[in-house]
Structure formats: structure tokens, C-alpha cells
Specification:
- The structure is a homodimer.
- In chain A, 55% of the residues lie in helices and 3% in strands.
- The longest helix of chain A is centred in the C-terminal third of the chain and has 34 residues.
- By secondary structure, the first copy, chain A, is mainly α.
- In chain A, strands 1-2 form a two-stranded antiparallel ribbon.
- At the A-B interface, helix 3, helix 4, helix 5, helix 7 and helix 8 of A face helix 3, helix 4, helix 5, helix 7 and helix 8 of B.
- Chain A binds a DNA duplex through helix 2.
Chain lengths: 235, 235
DNA sequence: CTATATTAGACAGTAGAGCTACCCAATTTT
DNA sequence: AAAATTGGGTAGCTCTACTGTCTAATATAG
């Protein structure tokens, strides 16, 4: 198929596809002449994947490129794809360039307490450490011990994730699913957490309903009312 | 304190503070004259909070403004703050403006299956529904039933979250903690999931180590090696 | 076989976000 | 009185993600 059909069947404008080609989100088609190139279903699949990462998950184009590159390079060994640097958070480089032995960071302590085997270079370590520091700066008593039970729940979540991959015959298929599940499900999991919070919180701190009989003091059995308002963004 | 001291004690440039004032992330100080205004610790606290949401969590300025506004408006009733539209994902408005009775969306089915009481207007519903649709478009068999066990884990996570608030005496303090926990912990929870995936995956699909004795065929007991590479972003 | 329509590829232009720099008049401070 | 600081405002800068336009080559229709 040519670029216009790729555009039609994906819903992405031709100009944008060209942009993605320049940005190396898509491999070039096979040129049949100076002004003609041929694309196949592989390109279409790639394009849809890239678009989903960008529009649904909200990844930047450059992060998306890294994700897709990783997907290509490690398509043989499934597990390598996980802990990969798939744009977790605005993490900058470690600002301590010295290679002297350092004391274990909160992230290190948490990881060893959980008994996990995690790459030394994982950017997720910095995310954990930095966020803990920020929370403390803001007056919340939080250290790696606080995160231990969250870590246990993360283990259960990861098991669910891996189970989703079981029925993928092709290992290539499995790698792609791993990426999709890991990344696209993130907003959903956070949405579930917020809803679970709303639900649990509505029961614990019942809102003083307007037509309330008594002023309402502490835990009274009560349902949630309309609450949230619109607009969300950028994740 | 004046603006320059606010800048010094927060580390945020004066020009940026002025920008935040214009964007209504901070309330104006009390003007003592035409060219002088006084700020207090409340402003400093606000500024630090806004900065954390923007730089650590990666929220946009406009989303941050909504979060802070919500924090002010609902500072009396804790639970309302949760499910709030705190920028979960690039969710656009519902594109079906008709108010005729619609069939329940996958999100609705999931929520009722979980037995949750959730605001009708919660933008998280759209996140769930849209992401499920995207996943199916990309060939992953996913429906609301897939998310049920994730929902159960979300309940447990939410319980941990609420427990963190127990020891906050002041209800105002509690609301601020709720916001911090809900939003700042999101990258951490996703980081924990990725690490848990790496850990579990390393054990399930051991990587063929370079100095391997035999070609390695299927599950052999093996630890994870160095994997990830740098760069993460924008979340 | 000529006329019309497409296409690849390159590059400039745009819109929005998030700062940042500068200016000015009005104070403070010295 | 001189020097420094401040508030308020505006303009500009960088980056991201596209979008539009141009050109020459090619495909297709008649």
C-alpha cells in the first residue's frame, strides 16, 4: 500500500505519517521508484501502536521512539523489555558522576527488602528515591518502609500482567503485548486507584448531605454523591 | 516576606513565581504599597506543592491550577478530593452530547461489578473505556472482566493510601496529604510495577546469558542482569 | 502518448506550553 | 539624595508536535 492508504486505514494524516517517518517512529517503506514507496501491514501495525502510545498514553514522540526501538532490539528476550526505561517520569541523569561506593538509596533498600532482582541502571530507582525525598520536603513522613506494602501489591499486579501474556503463542506477539500492557494500562490503573479511593473515602468520611437529618459526626453509612468535574491532562 | 525571599527559600526564580501568580497557582500577596507585597508561609507551602506537582509528577500548569483550586474549594470534606478530575490522562470531553439513556460502558460494568459508588461524571470512567477500546483495536483481548482483579488490587492500594491519612490531626492537613499521596505517588507505583514485572519476568523467562554452557531452552533458574538504559520522560 | 493526479522528500511555518528577560515607575534603604 | 529592590506588565525565547507548501518524478486516464 502507498502512504495515502496507510493514512486512510489508520486515520493519521499523511503529513503526520511523514513526520513520524522522519522521527523514526516508523521504518521507511520499500521504495519502488523515486517517488513511490510501498508499505505493508507491519507498518500499519506500528503506526497504530505509536499513535496509541502518543494519544492514549500521552508519551512524547521521543519517548515513543525509544520504546519502539527497545521493542525491536529486544524482541527475542521477553523479560528485558519490562524494567526498561519506558518513560516513567521526568527523571534526569544521576547527578553524582562519581563511581565511589555509595550508601544504598531508599530505592535500593526497598528493592532488597522486597527481595527483587533489579537492574542497577533502572531509572525507576531514581523515581522512587526522588519522590520520597519530595514527599518528606513537603512534610509527609514517608520512607522506603512506607512503600513496602505497595511493593507487595505491585508484585500481584505484575503477576496479572504476566498472565495476560501466557496465551500469546508467538514470542514477538508476546513482546508487543508486554509493551502495550505495561504502558497503556498505566492510566487505567491510576484511574482505578482514584475510583477505589473515592469509594473507600466516601464510606469513611461521609459527606454532610444537604437534606441531612442530624449534622453527621463520624463514620455513618452513606453513599457517594456527584463529585468530580471535567478536564484531565497530560498525565 | 517579599517575593525575593520567597524565591530564595523555595529555589524557584522570581520570574517564575510571577508567572505562577499570573497563572493563579499562587494567591497574590497582601500589597503593602504600590510596589510591595507581603507573602507568608502559606504562600511558601503552596509554591512548594505546585512545584512538586509540576516538576516531580509532571503535571501541566493548567492541571496544577485545577488541582490547587479543588484543594481550596473542598478543603472541608476530605473524600470529595479523591475521584476528582486530577489530570489522569489526556481525556477529552464525552463526544456524545445526547442525554438519552445509553447502554452501560465497559467502565460502568466494571464499577458495578466491583460494587463501587463512583460519581457519574468522573473522567476516570472515560479513561477506562477508551483504553480498553484501544487495546482491542491493537489486537489484545481485553474487556472489563480483565480489569476486575486489577480493581481488587486497587482497593487494597486505596486502603493503604487512606491509612496514611489517619495520623493527620487537622482536616486541612489531611486534604493536602490526600492530594500529595494520590498524585505524587503515581509515578512511584508505576515504577514499582515495572520493577516487579522485571523481577517476575526475569524468573519466568531467563535470559540466555552470554557465557552460557548450553544454548538454554526454556525456564532455567537464573537471575536478572543489567538491562535498562537511560532517559525517561513526561510520563 | 499526452494530460491530470499522486507521491516522496525536504523545509518552512504554526500554535501552544513554560518559562525568562527586560522595562518602568514607585518605593525602600543607605 | 543616590542606589537598590520591588511589582506589574509585556515581549521574547525554546521546545514539542504537527501542518502546509513546494518540487520533481511518476502513475494513471483518456
Amino acid at each position: 500500500m502507498r502512504i495515502s492508504e496507510l493514512s486512510r486505514s489508520s486515520g493519521v494524516p499523511v503529513a503526520t505519517i511523514k513526520y513520524y517517518l522522519r522521527e523514526e517512529l516508523l521504518p521507511a517503506g520499500v521504495a519502488t521508484s523515486a517517488t513511490q514507496a510501498e508499505y505493508d501491514e507491519h507498518h500499519l501495525r506500528r503506526l497504530r501502536l505509536a499513535r496509541a502510545l502518543i494519544t492514549v498514553r500521552g508519551l512524547s514522540v521521543s519517548t515513543t521512539r525509544e520504546v519502539l526501538r527497545a521493542l525491536d532490539e529486544h524482541s527475542t528476550d521477553t523479560h528485558l523489555l519490562f524494567g526498561l526505561a519506558l518513560g516513567a517520569v521526568p527523571t534526569e541523569e544521576p547527578d553524582c558522576p562519581s563511581d565511589q561506593p555509595q550508601e544504598p538509596s531508599p530505592a535500593d533498600q526497598l528493592i532488597s527488602a522486597l527481595g527483587w532482582e533489579i537492574s542497577e541502571k533502572a531509572p525507576t530507582r531514581a523515581t522512587v528515591t526522588d519522590t520520597l525525598a519530595t514527599l518528606r520536603d513537603l512534610g509527609l513522613p514517608a520512607d522506603w518502609r512506607t512503600l513496602l506494602p505497595y511493593g507487595r501489591l505491585a508484585e500481584r499486579t505484575a503477576e496479572l500482567d504476566l498472565a495476560q501474556l501466557e496465551d500469546a503463542a508467538d514470542p514477538l506477539e508476546r513482546v508487543e503485548r508486554a509493551v502495550l500492557l505495561t504502558i497503556l494500562l498505566e492510566p487505567v490503573l491510576m484511574a482505578l486507584r482514584r475510583m477505589a479511593q473515592e469509594n473507600a473515602s466516601a464510606k469513611r468520611y461521609p459527606r454532610p448531605e444537604e437534606p441531612a437529618d442530624q449534622p453527621a459526626d463520624q463514620p455513618v453509612e452513606q453513599a457517594a454523591g456527584g463529585t468530580a468535574d471535567g478536564a484531565a491532562e497530560q498525565d
